[in-house]
Amino acid sequence: MAAIDPLTATGVLLATAATDAVYVMFTSAVVARRRVPAATWSSVWYVLSSYAVISYTENWLYVAFAAVGSWLGAFATITFLHRPPGGPPVGAAPSDVGRT
Q1: Which whole-number Å values give the CA distances from 26 to 29, 41, 57, 72, in the listed order?
Q2: C-alpha–C-alpha distance, residues 44 and 63, integer Å
Q3: How far is Cα 69 from Cα 61, in angstroms, rounded to an integer?
Q4: pTM for this structure?
Q5: For residues 9 and 58, what is the distance between their CA atoms, to the nearest angstrom?
Q6: 3-class SS of residue 61
Q7: Per-residue pLDDT tens over the stretch 15-33
Q8: Which candidate, 6, 58, 70, 99, has a CA 20 to 30 Å from the CA of 32?
């Protein structure tokens, strides 16, 4: 069994996290019927996934890093996209509620 290179493992984890984040953005653009953003996210999605696939085809153990990265990317993106109703928009200044 081949040793795992920490740099490659980190690269695979980050690439799959980014891939899933981009996939969520792609799906969001498709649902919103925005053609140019959907096409752009789709092309970025394939470039990112290519790195991960090429990296872990040499050693199947990298698939575990790909799975963790995939989970993290989707979770973080859905967390970012899903805002509770009535909350401030992303990037808004903090509220002064409670100050006198």
Answers
A1: 5, 5, 25, 17
A2: 21
A3: 14
A4: 0.57
A5: 12
A6: coil
A7: 888 888 888 888 888 888 8
A8: 70
Residue 44, CB-side half-sphere exposure with 13 Å CA sphere? 18
CA pair distance 69, 78, nearest whole angstrom: 14
Detail the DSSP E strand segments found in the chain.
Answer: none
The answer to whether 9 and 66 are in contact (CB under 8 A) is no
Which amino acid, residue 52?
A
> What confidence tens digit (pLDDT) does each residue in 54-86 have?
766 677 777 788 788 878 877 887 787 766 666
For 93, the token pair is: 């200044």
| 99: its two tokens | 């100050």
C-alpha–C-alpha distance, residues 73 and 59, integer Å: 22
